[in-house]
Amino acid sequence: MPKTIHVPAKEFYDEQNNKFINVKETTLVLEHSLISVSKWEANWKKPFLVEGALDTTEKIVDYFKCMTISPANVDPLVYLSLTSENIQDIMSYINDPMTATWFGDEKKKKPGFKGAKKPKKEILTSEVIYWQMIALQIPIEFQKWHLNRLTTLIRVCNAKNNPEKMSKKDILAQNAALNKARRAKLHSKG
Fold first, then answer.
1. Are the beta carbons of 146 and 139 closer than 8 angstroms?
2. Does the chain have fewer CB atoms within 10 Å around its N or its C terminus?
């Protein structure tokens, strides 16, 4: 689901040419998708989905450019005209889960939760996500989905295709319950 942002008109002063530059009010349509991430990674040659990837204003603005699906040929000064509210709105859109799905292990990942396990440090790039889509037979059209929604779908597919195995303790408890039910049904002691 794309996000529409209204960027107000702004005036810049070009010291080199000693003149004012007016930037028109512009409406941007942005999409936080696998396509956007792929474009950004191609530009910067580094993974997007790692902490600190957007560590400079230049990288953030470039990601906003990669997210832009319309209009075509946006004046680069439009991105410098973004207000703090525009940026906050875009960042909220990027961080929105875009789904009602949640996973039971999410509490364990939060800092301070007893028994929390550190997640594996796999570097996730756009190509890895494309591979996951291919392996799970997710249609390529889903690359336009909001990235958080797509990664949730991949996680759901993985969970449904590879249900968690029961622990030895749980298997023994289940077998004991089944044996008890059979003995009761057959009126047997052994």
1. no
2. C
Tokens of 21: 């530059």
pLDDT tens over the chain, length 190 residues: 899 999 999 999 999 999 999 999 999 999 999 999 999 999 999 999 999 999 999 999 999 999 999 998 999 999 999 999 999 999 999 999 999 988 876 554 444 334 334 455 678 899 999 999 999 999 999 999 999 999 999 999 988 888 777 778 878 888 888 888 888 878 887 6
Distance between CA atoms of residues 107 and 117, nearest Å: 10
Q: Could you give the 3-state DSSP secondary structure of residue 54?
A: coil
Question: Domain limits of the chain?
Answer: 3-95
Cα 135 to chain centroid distance, Å, stands at 19
Q: How many CB atoms lie within 10 A of CB 32?
A: 27
Residues with Cβ < 8 Å from 157, sequence gap 6 or more? 136, 138
Return the bridge partners of 22, or none.
11
DSSP letter (8 states) at residue 74? -
